[in-house]
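Retro notes (design track)

What went well: tokenization of the new backbones is finally stable.
What didn't: we kept losing track of which sequence belonged to which structure.
Fix going forward: every design gets posted as structure first, then sequence, in one message. First example under the new rule, 190 residues:
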């Protein structure tokens, strides 16, 4: 069975994103044409929230669950800002580890091995307790939309998150409604 090929068909037809973007103009950081950033809020993991005149954009960082999320302002139903408490799990394991260190020290037959093993467990437990006391509480912002939620950790300062949320609500209020949800018909009265 013979297969006929043309000279142009032997090359790979797949193009990479770099090739496509190098031939086109700069995408302006993912913004739509004519869109401009009104406000920006940095996330804890090198991500950021951006407020434009039409939507809220989240570009996640390296530790974030979501890489990119976008929602139109008129689709945002509610904004929730909450505090992330300290990780109590590390404090609980630190206390358990201190009791385990005492148990290891008392239960080993040789005193040098018991002291060494107990000290190692106690040091790990103290690190866990220190992690609980040193790690600051965080602030989590969540935009609930009709299609899901856009959320991210924004650090320890709630005032910046509240200011950004007020900016989103103000921009949402300024949107001119394109159509009323319930149609109005002016019927003549008889």
């Amino acid at each position: 069975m013979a297969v006929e090929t043309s000279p142009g068909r032997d090359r790979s037809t797949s193009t990479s994103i770099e090739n496509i973007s190098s031939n086109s103009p700069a995408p302006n950081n993912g913004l739509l044409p004519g869109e401009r950033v009104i406000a920006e809020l940095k996330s804890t993991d090198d991500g950021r929230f951006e407020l434009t005149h039409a939507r809220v954009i989240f570009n996640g960082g390296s530790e974030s669950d979501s890489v990119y999320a976008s929602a139109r302002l008129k689709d945002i139903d509610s904004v929730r800002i909450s505090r992330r408490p300290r990780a109590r799990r590390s404090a609980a394991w630190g206390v358990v580890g201190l009791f385990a260190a005492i148990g290891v020290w008392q239960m080993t037959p040789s005193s040098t091995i018991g002291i060494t093993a107990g000290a190692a467990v106690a040091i790990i437990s103290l690190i866990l307790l220190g992690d609980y006391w040193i790690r600051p509480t965080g602030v989590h912002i969540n935009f609930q939309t009709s299609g899901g939620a856009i959320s991210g950790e924004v650090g320890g300062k709630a005032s910046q998150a509240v200011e950004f949320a007020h900016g989103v609500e103000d921009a949402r209020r300024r949107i001119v409604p394109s159509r009323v949800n319930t149609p109005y018909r002016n019927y003549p009265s008889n």
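Added context from the reviewer: The first strand starts at residue 37 and ends at 42.
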